[in-house]
Amino acid sequence: MTTPTPDEIEVALKDLEADATTWTNAAADLRVAAAAAERQRLDPAVFSFAGPAAAAEYEALRAKLASRISQGVAGFAAIAAALRASAAAYAADEAAGVHRMQNIY
């Protein structure tokens, strides 16, 4: 395995940031969907034709959907954070390696 060039490292770090931004944007999109799901609460009276069981089932489904979407937001945000942490750790390691090499010569 060859040692990556500085340009390859810079490109890899930019790619990690680009991927992190994609996940951050996806989390933002899901946040909008989660908020919409939260706003879909209905007064049980609108189910008067079907009875209270239908109202309870609707609310259970709506709450589960909102919860799952919120979990997706958290997951996407965690992926973005992990990518950014990886890029930061890699950059720090690279800087430390360059510093060590400069002190050798």
Features of this protein?
105 residues; mainly alpha; rod-shaped
Describe this structure as you would to a colleague.
By secondary structure, the chain is mainly alpha-helical. Helix content is 82%, strand content 0%. It has helices at 6-38, 52-104. Helix 1 runs antiparallel to helix 2 (52-104). The longest helix has 53 residues, at 52-104. The radius of gyration is 24 Å and the shape is rod-shaped. It starts with 5 loop residues before the first helix and ends with a helix. The mean pLDDT is 89.
TL;DR?
The chain is mainly alpha-helical. Helices cover 82% and strands 0% of the residues. Helix 1 packs antiparallel against helix 2 (52-104).
Q: How are the secondary structure elements laid out?
A:
Layout lengths: L5 H33 L13 H53 L1
Structural class: mainly alpha
Tally the structural domains: 1
Cα distance spanning the termini = 24 Å
**Uncertain residue segments:** none
Summarize model confidence as the mean pLDDT: 89
In percent terms, what proportion of residues is strand?
under 5%
Please provide the ordered H/E string of secondary-structure elements: HH
Task: Please bin the fraction of helical residues.
Answer: over 70%
Q: Major β-sheet, in short?
A: none
**Could you tell me the radius of gyration in angstroms?**
24 Å
